[in-house]
Design the sequence.
């Protein structure tokens, strides 16, 4: 199956700093990638849809200026959490869509802890 | 995409079959039933999907009722490593809709 990687797998940062998370499709090209967020004991919530070469589409309630998404190539999308605060602590998961069947494959997730 | 209803949790003894039900009474004719699972602190893993016929792969079997309003995911010989949250999702295959996750079923496999 298609493999999606994320880096880092976990990160701890101080409040007010920015954190960048990378999502890579290792053996396929993905024109569309998705970013999800998951709080403890809750389900995955879609944050945004990222299309290669264009601006990301954010879900309602997700601040686009706080969660910067860049999808500059067909194998890499990045999520930058700017000015992180403790309430941003969560499990961030990316997903890549593979054509032509448009199936989604998920990365292993990144655990962000903001102190 | 149609909504799904799953039990909050289920228990299963190791080595026995785990049967996870899912109701999707508002499913449309062009919507497939997908199953994913999420082991603790990992990303979701695709298991299987189907339209109306029963499907089987190396991980599981999917039984869809004739009226397509419900389905059952079967893990034939559950192991401790099958302990996870199982998500039943209905969506159009090949379409551009994203996967929307509900609360899923927490399956606990015990020795």
Sequence:
């Amino acid at each position: 199956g298609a493999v999606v990687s994320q880096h880092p797998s976990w990160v701890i940062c101080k409040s007010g700093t920015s954190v960048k998370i990378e999502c890579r499709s290792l053996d396929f090209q993905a024109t569309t990638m998705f970013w999800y967020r998951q709080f403890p004991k809750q389900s995955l919530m879609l944050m945004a849809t990222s299309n290669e070469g264009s601006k990301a589409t954010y879900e309602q309630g997700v601040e686009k200026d706080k969660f910067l998404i860049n999808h500059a190539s067909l194998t890499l999308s990045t999520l930058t959490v700017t000015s992180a605060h403790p309430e941003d602590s969560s499990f961030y998961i990316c997903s890549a869509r593979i054509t032509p069947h448009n199936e989604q494959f998920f990365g292993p997730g990144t655990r962000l802890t903001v102190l | 995409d149609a909504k799904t209803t799953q039990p909050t949790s289920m228990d299963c003894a190791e080595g026995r079959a785990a049967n996870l039900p899912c109701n999707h009474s508002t499913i449309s004719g062009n919507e497939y039933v997908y199953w994913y699972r999420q082991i603790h602190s990992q990303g979701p893993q695709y298991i299987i999907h189907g339209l109306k016929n029963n499907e089987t792969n190396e991980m599981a079997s999917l039984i869809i009722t004739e009226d397509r309003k419900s389905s059952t995911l079967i893990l034939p010989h559950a192991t401790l490593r099958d302990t996870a949250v199982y998500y039943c999702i209905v969506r159009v295959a090949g379409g551009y809709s994203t996967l929307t996750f509900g609360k899923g079923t927490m399956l606990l496999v015990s020795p």
